[in-house]
Fold:
Amino acid sequence: MGNIMEKLELTAQSMYCKKVEELTPSELHLSLGKAVMGEIADNWAKSKAKHNSERRAYYFSAEFLMGRMMYNNLYCLGILEDVKKMLKKKGVDINVFEDIDDAALGNGGLGRLAACYLDSAATQEVPLDGYGIRYKYGLFKQLIEDGYQVEVADNWQRFEDPWCIRKEDEAVTVSFKDQTVKAVPYDMAVIGCKTDNINTLRLWQAEAVNDFDFTAFNDTQYDKAVKEKNDAENISKVLYPNDNKYEGKVLRLKQQYFFCSASLQDIMRRYKAKHGNDFSFFAKENAIQLNDTHPVSCVPELVRLLQNEGLNFDEAFEIARKTCSYTNHTVLGEALEKWPADLMTQVIPEIYHIICLIANKCQEELTAKGVSEDMKAKMRIIDGNVVHMARLATYAATYVNGVAQLHTEILKDDVLKEWYQVYPERFQNKTNGITQRRWLGLCNPELSALITEKVGSDEWLIDLSLISKLNDCMDARTITKFNNIKKKKKVQLAEYIKKMDGFDINPDSIYDVQVKRLHEYKRQLLNAFSIMTIYFRLKEKKLTNWTPTTFIFGAKAAPGYARAKAIIKYINEIANLVNNDPDTKDLLQVYFISNYNVSYAEKIVVAADISEQTSTAGLEASGTGNMKFMLNGAVTLGTYDGANIEIAECAGEENEYIFGARVEDIERLKAEGYNPKALYDANPEIKRVIDTLIDGTFDDDGAQGEGSFRELHDALLKGTSWQVADHYFLLYDLPLYVDAKIKANADYADRKAFGKKCLMNVANAGKFSSDRAIVEYAKEIWHTSYKGMKKK
Structure:
């Protein structure tokens, strides 16, 4: 510890000519970060050397939502409290780092899952490194203006980042049909907890091979002089560029191929340093996990690189097939990526040619297995001049896994049904998990202390199954302690929301929270309709004994997703109405927080009483937000979907509020010809709430067409050319949902009984540790070493 403070003082002096207490927050962040990096350098180097001597795994992901690194790294090193005390002696509050931006390297659950898995791999000593993109601006920073989402650049790199080390000497080039760019790696240390092991997240930044054309500049062609630089840097500027237009699709495809090619070249460089041109050991030493379909071009690119080393197609494909495994994260057709063949031939023609070879090989293999022509047609990798990336991944992978029990069964029975029938041995389930270190130990020290007291040690930080000992501690005194901790966290969240968004939140109210990516299937609109139903009942005195409740929303809508943006506007219109109505404002408040991110989540999940998980049954693969809320003692108010099912199984369905149609009900409704208009006509309460979209209750400033309140209304009752009416079954589930909300609200009044429900969730969250998940991957998919592994 003394070394870190000495290094901090030296860094502050050499970089800024200042004492520690004189540094600005960004200067202190950079100086302390560099001191920490210096402290871990030796262990990081030793870990890299060890990993290089054994079979290792690589996690390819378009997103890594790491959150703030300072607190987490100090926590994992076991020195957070010591640093806090030493800074306090200098007159510096460690909370100044709350003004440091999160690294904008992801958006939603996909990126946060990847971050949790890297954390767990480091802690469980699994030789797993991550590969992704170092986005300059991430997705975007969200502002709310007049109720609408406004996107601005999230320039998180405007101050130097102490956690990423540029490795110029290991840069590679990536070539497209019309462009060659340089991929420069930046390495981020992923520090394990209670171990000396440190893994690496390598992020690629796109740069020009020649970033300045002096001749063009001298000829006063100033734009041309920097055109190559700008075109190259666009590739790693923004996460998920808007692909509503052709140019956006080109950029997305380039982005995906860019990081796959760079990462594979890096892996091959490391392999060749050991084995030269003998690739017979490649699949034995390397396992690559494709996190969703974004990195699937990894498969044909690995074939291409191996062919460049002298292997023939069959040899190269066999190695690729034994190296790569695929995690499916969705059952939504639009999210199972498909690329027009014409687009691929214009951007990465060599890769498209190899995909054609793989597609032909697939059909030949299916013929040899005696698969029928009808089934073969459903399994075409290239179908109708479109490349189906999920099919490519499923065919070319050693293993394919879903991320919750129900999700995996849906893959087997529906989405990838034909593939499962032909290749059943490939399919596994790996229920998602979260790291208890960030999502409990770091963000909820008070609850962590209570758990440690009751469990008898803090070993639950690296073995969350130990938390089950809390089941023997459901006495009144412990429940009271838990409730007091929850109240403290609610006060802290109210203060944080006031600071970030200017809202005045009542910490004595129930906190009913829905924070997640904005998508129609996640049904934030259903939540909004339920709030309006309750509002009308309260206003007309049809609902009594209602405990004051604050409904908190947080979500970003993709820039090109017009309906999602309309839902944000609608929620904010509701907030404006109910928060200012003298008849209800003391009973009902609604707030939509802006720019929801990891750091905001750390404040919210610890304070929530009710966790809203309302996806249409069968459409949420797993979810991880539900696990974070569970771990911090919120009850789940949700559908029988994704990991909600397993949460209810573990904690007891009596300790959750499960409502609505289940998968089998949805299938029955579809078969019978679901008619939401009939429900609308038959139920005046449903009609009244739905009609607030168009009857003048709320104002969307006269918007027309897609993204207007009128279009939302029509989508529910009439459908569109591409979607049936009420595609996500909001009208069917709304009455059941309102009943569940009212039941949870009534139960909350018994603070002891409700507190026990919450604590039962904490006690039974052990299954949902990403440590459990990552060891399962290591054992059953990657076949790598892990902590505590029995040596053969």
The chain has a mean pLDDT of 95. The chain is about 50% helix and 15% strand.
